Amino acid sequence: xxxxxxxxxxxxxxxxxxxxxxxxxxxxxxxxxxxxxxxxxxxxxxxxxxxxxxxxxxxxxxxxxxxxxxxxxxxxxxxxxxxxxxxxxxxxxxxxxxxxxxxxxxxxxxxxxxxxxxxxxxxxxxxxxxxxxxxxxxxxxxxxxxxxxxxxxxxxxxxxxxxxxxxxxxxxxxxxxxxxxxxxxxxxxxxxxxxxxxxxxxxxxxxxxxxxxxxxxxxxxxxxxxxxxxxxxxxxxxxx
Length: 240
Known about the structure:
CATH topology: Rossmann fold
CATH superfamily: Vaccinia Virus protein VP39
Helix content: 25-40%
């Protein structure tokens, strides 16, 4: 496979899988690894990713759960092209169906209430005036996927009893919990991530469509050493 000067191949340290990163586009962070490790599915589940990016989460979820198919939505053509290269690099183009379109248009591709599992590491920052490339801005800020649309779309996709796995900025926990409640998504399990300096960064959770109330709160998950270096093995007692 031919790479551009901006691209590099990295080892995902999972079953020989590799990922192409492009320094001019959005590169994945530990958020993606945490979420991919957290998602649990059955082999026959109908599974959807909202916001595929480079494809790293779908690739890891497919490897860890051996699914028949994942449908992955990515709105940005440049990121979708990179994602497709990564699927081909790992021979997963027949296991992960990539759709370059707004996920709000999902009913053109999938019936409503037909999905068993939805997972997403969405853009969770509010829009800012910070100068960065358009691709990175769309990947980080809720320009095309506001919080309300994310949760509403996930709920519409899911059958009753279906699961929604998501990570979001910790400072917006109340907002996303409120939106989940409005859309009949009951949060059943959650934890926060923190860096090596004790700063809480993300909230990660599993919600169930039409689920009963009651949530299990797991211990915080440490993702970095004190100097900011990403931990090769995430530190936690109860999270696997």
